[in-house]
Amino acid sequence: MGITKTEAFKAADLTLAAYAKALAHPARVAILRILLERSSCICGDIVDELPLSQSTVSQHLKELKEAGLIKGDIDGKKVCYCIDENAWKHAQLLMQKMFASYTSCGTSCC
Amino acid sequence: MGITKTEAFKAADLTLAAYAKALAHPARVAILRILLERSSCICGDIVDELPLSQSTVSQHLKELKEAGLIKGDIDGKKVCYCIDENAWKHAQLLMQKMFASYTSCGTSCC
DNA sequence: TTCTATCATCGTAATATTACAATAAGAAAG
DNA sequence: CTTTCTTATTGTAATATTACGATGATAGAA
Hints:
The structure is a homodimer.
Chain A: H1 11-22, H2 26-37, E1 42-43, H3 46-49, H4 54-66, E2 70-75, E3 78-83, H5 85-100
Antiparallel strand pairs in A: 1-3, 2-3
Chain B binds a DNA duplex through helix 4.
């Protein structure tokens, strides 16, 4: 139905899935890489670096903001974007824990 | 348009986004946790642990398989699922690199 | 005020996702 | 062969996502 049975899953799984969803589009990965590349905030010109229209980029930025991964502070005519440190480290921790919990399959079936 | 401008993005971003997409639903995260919990493969009964119908679970398993994160080997009447070690470690590496490349914002704007 | 630059939002169209019941496909049991 | 058990696939409906042009909103320049 295109609708997810949100209430049926564990909070930790929902949180991780939400972060993953934010990363689930190459444009958003590209935006994050642009923000990661510089140590300071970036004002505007994200649009110039992507092959997408201004409105589409703005929409992706909104999704990243709603996921909490980035912040956008108004600075006069422009908007200053940067990674949200807390959410970023939270997402990193959840991902790390998930991926690190793997141990090689003991059986011979695979 | 619901369609992604695939050709316009870097391969690394596409790969990371594809892995992230596989993790972008709580049911798939839950499935992966079930597989991670045991050191051996698990035959069937994933459906019993989730609040979803058999066909829906099967569809999620298919997506995880297509993303490469899991394998399913036929074992008589049942199917043996387990994490695909190579893809898992590849995804882990890409995620780790991405998250680790963050350094605190130097400026005062955020 | 008026113009311009920058970013957000709205409206819309195309496509994708999520979910389930029903059905199919395959292997083992009887 | 027929039945049963297990998983995959098909069909369908509801909702979500992706993308862009057009329009709004706001701040600074002229």
